[in-house]
């Protein structure tokens, strides 16, 4: 049976931690409203304990953005949990999200505590958060490098303590898809109370596998994916929201799942986030890059002009992009040249086309890309 995958957007928390991406409070609020239009299920609005400015931004988002669950991040300590609650409590549906290490590396060199002490700290933090808020998410930081049996034990204990969502992060982007999918299946098999909470993943892109890992987790039964617009996030970033969403949509029969994202808002959202963070999107970025629907070689242009599905697996309108573009270069053929000239209002006969194409190739060799201005010159010359 087809199931829903919840999209948890962390553009305003993990995404904002991208070096060079910091946002003002009003920019965060503007993006949060757009995320609601996009139809995300959860907005992680910030890290309120980090600064008064971020605390206030989260409060404003909680007060004014309707629809999604509004959450924010805490470490598993009371002061952080209080800061989250005091800022998200105004939301229609608030959630407290806390994070605590589960790997021996983090236990030893970050917390200097034993596994047992960390487990107890996590359980107490969840119990406390549940006295404030009915919806509490617990992240087992660095899960991919954690001891499996210990991870199962932590997940079971925090669900018993009242966690409603358990998030399994590949914090350092270390995992590979088959292994990561297996971890999700193993959690579902080995944690007796796993069906009492939503199982989530949060993957980083250090090896370029954040989206692949997230989708492998969905295939294995994960119910929530944490991701960020344009793949923003610490270091190499998080799983890209638009790639996860379109992966599930385009290959729906394979994943047997869907999201509630309004996909025609993907490009407008990407452009807003790029403009406000000042971080450009690569031209060749999947889904939202400028070249995502641009065809350059003659063979592809001819094919896509005959029928779009020859070379496009979804349409520009599906993701709110401007449309298919036929880029004229020295690799372009007669069909593409005729199409572009006709779209500028010229009528081109077959005889004209031979002659025009020869001159066009000289122009294209000299100029690399032939634009509308050059085409007008071609016609008058
Ligand atoms: Zn992260």
How would you characterize the overall build of this protein?
There is one protein chain. This protein is of the alpha/beta class and 381 residues long. The protein folds into two domains: 3-277, TIM Barrel (Alpha-Beta Barrel), CATH 3.20.20.70; 294-380, Recoverin, domain 1. The protein is 45% helix and 14% strand. The protein contains 15 helices and twelve strands. The strands form three sheets. Strands 2-3-4-5-6-7-8-9 form an eight-stranded parallel barrel, surrounded by eight helices. Strands 1-10 form a two-stranded parallel sheet. A two-stranded parallel ribbon has the order 11-12. The radius of gyration is 24 Å and the shape is elongated. The termini are far apart. The mean pLDDT is 95. Residues 14, 202, 204, 233-234, 238 line the site of zinc ion (ZN).
Compile the SSE list and pairings.
Blueprint: E1 3-4, E2 6-9, H1 25-38, E3 42-44, H2 52-64, E4 69-75, H3 78-88, E5 94-101, H4 104-111, H5 115-132, E6 136-141, H6 148-160, E7 165-170, H7 177-190, E8 198-203, H8 210-219, E9 224-227, H9 241-250, H10 252-255, E10 257-258, H11 266-277, E11 294-295, H12 298-306, E12 325-326, H13 334-343, H14 350-367, H15 372-380
Parallel strand pairs: 1-10, 2-3, 2-9, 3-4, 4-5, 5-6, 6-7, 7-8, 8-9, 11-12
Helix pairs in contact: 1-2, 1-11, 2-3, 3-5, 5-6, 7-8, 8-9, 12-13, 14-15
Bound molecules: zinc ion (ZN).
Zinc ion (ZN) binds next to loops.
Radius of gyration: 24 Å
Highest CATH level, the class of the largest domain:
Alpha Beta
Question: What's the number of extended β-strand segments?
Answer: 12
Count of discrete alpha- or pi-helical segments spanning 4 or more residues? 15
The CATH superfamily of the largest domain turns out to be Aldolase class I
Q: Judging from the principal axes of the Cα atoms, what is the shape?
A: elongated
- Which range best describes the helical content: under 10%, 10-25%, 25-40%, 40-55%, 55-70% or over 70%? 40-55%
**Poorly predicted segments:** none
**Subunit organisation of the chains:** single chain
Alpha-carbon distance between the two ends: 62 Å
The percentage of residues in β strands lies in 5-15%
CATH architecture of the largest domain: Alpha-Beta Barrel
* Structural classification: alpha/beta
Number of domains: 2
- Mean of the pLDDT scores? 95
Strand order of the largest sheet: 2-3-4-5-6-7-8-9
CATH fold-level assignment of the largest domain: TIM Barrel
């Amino acid at each position: 049976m087809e199931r829903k995958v919840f999209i948890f957007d962390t553009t305003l928390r993990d995404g904002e931690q991208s070096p060079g991406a910091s946002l003002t409070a009003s920019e965060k609020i503007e993006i949060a409203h757009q995320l609601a239009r996009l139809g995300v299920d959860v907005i992680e609005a910030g890290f309120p304990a980090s600064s008064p400015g971020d605390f206030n931004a989260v409060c404003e988002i909680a007060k004014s953005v309707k629809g999604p669950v509004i959450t924010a991040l805490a470490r598993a300590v009371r002061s952080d949990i209080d800061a989250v609650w005091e800022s998200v409590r105004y939301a229609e549906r608030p959630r407290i999200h806390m994070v605590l290490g589960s790997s021996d590396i983090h236990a030893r060199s970050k917390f200097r505590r034993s596994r047992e002490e960390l487990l107890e700290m996590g359980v107490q933090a969840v119990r406390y958060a549940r006295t404030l808020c009915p919806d509490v998410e617990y992240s087992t930081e660095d899960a991919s490098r954690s001891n499996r049996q210990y991870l199962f034990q932590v997940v079971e204990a925090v669900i018993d303590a009242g966690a409603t969502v358990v998030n399994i992060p590949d914090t350092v982007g270390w995992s590979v898809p088959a292994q990561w999918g297996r971890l999700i299946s193993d959690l579902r098999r080995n944690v007796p109370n796993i069906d009492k909470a939503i199982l989530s993943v949060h993957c980083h892109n250090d090896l370029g596998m954040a989206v692949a890992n997230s989708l492998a987790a969905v295939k294995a039964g994960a119910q929530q994916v944490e991701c960020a617009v344009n793949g923003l996030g610490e270091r190499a970033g998080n799983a890209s929201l638009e790639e996860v969403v379109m992966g599930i949509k385009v290959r729906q029969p394979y994943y047997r799942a869907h999201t509630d994202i309004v996909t025609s808002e993907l490009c407008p959202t990407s452009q807003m986030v790029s403009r406000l963070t000042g971080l450009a999107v690569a031209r060749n970025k999947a889904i939202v890059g400028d070249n995502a629907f641009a065809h350059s070689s003659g063979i592809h242009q001819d094919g896509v002009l005959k029928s779009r599905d020859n070379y496009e697996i979804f349409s520009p309108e599906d993701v709110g992009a401007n449309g298919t573009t036929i880029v004229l270069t020295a690799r372009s053929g007669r069909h593409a040249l005729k199409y572009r000239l006709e779209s500028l209002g010229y009528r081109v006969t077959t005889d004209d086309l031979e002659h025009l194409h020869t001159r066009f190739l000289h122009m294209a060799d000299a100029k690399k890309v032939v634009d509308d201005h050059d085409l007008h010159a071609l016609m008058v010359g």
